Every structure is written in C-alpha cells, then in structure tokens.
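Deviations from the work plan: none for this task. Representative record:
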Amino acid sequence: MTQAMFERVALIGVGLIGSSISHAMRRRGLAKEIVGSARTKATLATALSLGLIDKGYERAAEAVKGADLVILSVPVGACGPLAAEIAPHLSAGAILTDVGSVKEAVVRDIAPHVPAGVHFVPGHPIAGTEQSGPEAGFAELFDGRWTILTPEPGTDAVAVEKLKAFWTALGSKVEIMNAQHHDMVLAITSHLPHLIAYNIVNTAEHLQRVTEKEVIKFSAGGFRDFTRIAASDPTMWRDVFLNNKEAVMEMLRRFSDDLAELKRAIEAADGDTLFRRFTEARDIRRGIIAAGQDTPAPDFGRVHGSQPAPETESGARK
Amino acid sequence: MTQAMFERVALIGVGLIGSSISHAMRRRGLAKEIVGSARTKATLATALSLGLIDKGYERAAEAVKGADLVILSVPVGACGPLAAEIAPHLSAGAILTDVGSVKEAVVRDIAPHVPAGVHFVPGHPIAGTEQSGPEAGFAELFDGRWTILTPEPGTDAVAVEKLKAFWTALGSKVEIMNAQHHDMVLAITSHLPHLIAYNIVNTAEHLQRVTEKEVIKFSAGGFRDFTRIAASDPTMWRDVFLNNKEAVMEMLRRFSDDLAELKRAIEAADGDTLFRRFTEARDIRRGIIAAGQDTPAPDFGRVHGSQPAPETESGARK
C-alpha cells in the first residue's frame, strides 16, 4: 500500500477512463477521498453505487472545492466550458489535469481559465477498450501503458513531478512531450486508425451487392477487428476529429498517397511491390509485441484458449 | 467419435489452415489416414513430427495417389500449377477442394485440369489468425465459423453434400453460393480490411515527424489492432489481391468515396455528420457479437482477464 498522494481527488466525468482511474487509485490507496461529478444524474448514481466516488455532486463546480487534484475525464469538446465553470472554485495549489486525446486544443480551451496558483498539467493515458461508461472501468487498464503529459513551458516542476508519480502509481509509464508533437503522434497511432475503422464499417453498411447479414456472418475474415475499434464512443471521437483537424488531415493525405501506390500495384499486377509492402508491415508488429504493447497470442474472435460450448456447436450444426 | 468419412485425405500444404484441418480431422476421427506434401522439406518434416500427417511426400503428385479427398491449402496463386501437376494422379471418384480466399480465379485456374470422374468443389473457411505455418494450427479454428463452398453448376450433388458434411464435422457452419458473389462478399469483409491495415502500417513507417519508436510505444491507442491484421502471411495476401482485382477495386472506390465524405465533415467542422456515422458503425458491431463471430470481452492488448506479473510492473515503474 502506497501512502496517499492526495487528500481529495475530484473526478469530473466517470466514464471508462475516469472509473478506471478510480479503481487504480483505490488499488494503491492514492487518495484519502475521491469525489466526483457526472453529466447525468444516472451516471452519478451509478458511480456512487459502484463505489467509484465517495461523494457525488451534480455540478462540477461543487465537486472541485477543496480538491488538491482535479481530473477532467470528459470528451475533448467539453473541456473548455467545464474549465470556465470550475475555475473560480479551484483551490490554491491544486493540480488540474485532463485525459483528453488531443492536447493543443485542450490547452487552448482550458489554460485561459486557470487561475494563478493552480497548476494545469495536461495529460493523456494511451489506454482504453472499445467500451464506455462507469461500469467499463477496471484497475489494470493503465498497467504497462504510456501516459503522456504535455505541460506548457513555465509550469511548476513540482506539480509535473507529482502528477508523473501519480500516473506511475496508477500503473502507467510516463513520457513528457509538447502538445503539438503529442497531437501528431496520436494522429497516426490512434486518430487515423479510428477514422479508417469507422469508414470501412460505414462502407460495408452502404453496400447493395452484399447484404449487412452477409457482412456480419462472414466478418471473421478481418472485418470484425475493425468493428471492434469502430465500437468506441462516438461523442469522444467526434470531438477528437474536430479538435485535431490539421494533424489528422496530414496523416490522411499520406495514407491516401500510400493507398494510391498499393492500388496501382494491384492494377498493374505488380506482385513484388505488394509482397514487399506486406512484409514491411509485418515487421512493425514484432516491435509492438517486443515492447509489451500487445500480446503475441493469436486473436480469432473468442476469449483466448476457450472453446465454444458443445451445445452451441451442435445447435449450429442443424 | 464420428465414423471416418474418408479413407485417405491428402493435405497439399500444411500451413495455418492445412494444419488446423488436420487437428480438426483427428479430433473427430474423420480420416483413416492423412497424408500430405509441403513446398519445403523443412515444413514437411515439421508436419510429420507434429503428427499432422501420417506420411509425407516431397511431390504433391505422389501425395494425392489413392486419396479420396484432396485439399489444396496453398496460396491462391499456387493452385493452377499444382492442379496441373496432380491432375493425372487423382483417383476416380475423389473430391478435390481448396481453401483459397478467392474463388473465381481458383475455378479458372483449377477446373480446366480436373479429369472426368473427379469432383472439384471449391471451398473457403472464413477463419484464421494472424499467424502462419504448421505450428500455428489448432483443432478449434473452424468452430462456429462459416465455410463457403462454391460448386459450379453441374457438380455432383453427392460430392457437394459430402464435403459440406465434412466441414460441418470440422466444426464449421457451411453456406453455398456462387464464386462471383463469394469474391464480392470477401472483398468487403476480408480483402479490403487487410489492404487498409497493411496500408496504415506502411504510412506509419514512412513518417518523418513521428518516429517508428513512438509509433510502437503509443500503439495502444488503436494502431496495434491494425498491425495484428497486417501481420498476416504476405504471400497469401499478395495472391489474394492479384486474383480478386475487380471486386477489391470496387470496394476501394466505395471506401474512398465514403472517406472523402468524412474528410469533408472534418474540414467543415460538421460534428453532426461525424457523430451520425460513428454511431451507425457501432451498431453493426452488436450484430457481429450477437451472431457469435466475436466476443464482447474488451480487448486491451493482453490476454483477457490476465494481469501483468507484479515484477514486470515494478520494473516498469522505475
């Protein structure tokens, strides 16, 4: 058990990330008290009943009072208005952070509201699942994953170190970089993959010559993996694309250029180019497994190692 | 234990699919004898040592002699030459099938070689993992998945029924459709997703402003799921794209049109369109889980439910 790092942590938003932070704090006893607020009364009630927060407030402005750590776990587009609402109620010396997937826009929207004496340190844990909501969280979500902090120049170094230690205690590894670079890195590692996954699922839905039923039945050929990514929270992702437009557009241009090359290779029956490109892509996978960011166990659409129940199978055989 | 359906099954090729067929046959005792051949001596030796085949032959023409079921489990591009090689050695009344991901081209390449009295029934199990080779196979690969058979008009109905019963006994569900429709269905459910996955991994590798090290470190944001798909066998996939050009090109055109719409929405800051498209994509995921083609368990880059070893974690925290 680690000694508590904060007296009172205010979680503004208790979805997948907010609730996972709560579980991970409880696991290590990092906060003497966890309070919170949520956008809806229903979510707030769920968060209280799950024990994610000790006290719940309908208004974020109430929740942050007396907190020495305030974490905004809300869609990127909600950060600005929230910051304006809570700013007058933040305690002197408090650390204010967020978990948004875009950092330049969040700095733009939050920083102007932050009063003197409050330390704003933007953050982003690179971890998640395709699920959403307070029930989706679990303590291990951040274990072995990276959290990026993007403090602006001049930010109090002690506050940055303390937040870094906090994320480390949550199980994460921590890297510090500037907000612009973060947005470029995430545009390729997260934002473009999600946009492409959403798009390919949309394309499948719009087909006339292949039915949706067929798309679902035969999805084990690769499509189902895209649908997993495309099951992520639509509000969160809408805000990501609205707020990281430039970097996403740059990555999309490069993606389209590369796709045009593959298309030309297929049209020209240029098997050598296809083979070379496919082989290159395989290598980067090995790096990801070596870095512990994915498991080498094959994924075939079931819980690994489990076998379907015999009854299901015999039923399916009829 | 089911009664043996075949006296002697010849597996031509013992990679992921061929070896899984062997395991699934053994599980139910479907063949009295399993023989096989492989492209390399090393693979043949591995197949023998793993017990995938009872007898191994360096030449496919030798392996098929006396077999009442011959299964070609090789890349699509290898089917034509193989068919020419084995044709004179096929037994009267034998069923010849394949497992290729493209069916029109396979019919085009194999059918002309098939002697009278041999029943050619093209097949394609929609199942796989990102791994390759004889060690990658396992008996449960086909359980609950679909296998598509695409017999040409006039094919012996008894042979088709027998092959259907065989795939059912391997654990699969079976659907029969024509080769052209198969190729269109697979173009959207499998071929386009793989092309897009390969392409996005290539794009990430070509970046200057984001390093490969960063792409790997922060891959948990979505990118790693694409690298899993892009880790599939390059030879197999080269042959798929060379042999299903038209259908893939049609899907690629539709994909690009849809992507252009998303791009316009981002540029115009049209959040409503983005939200609507993302919500639609989420719905199809539910259909896939309801159809048993994927598990609802969240994927977060580890074996489901497992926790990282504490030593690893404390090491990572340093």
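The CA atoms of residues 3 and 279 of chain A lie 49 Å apart.
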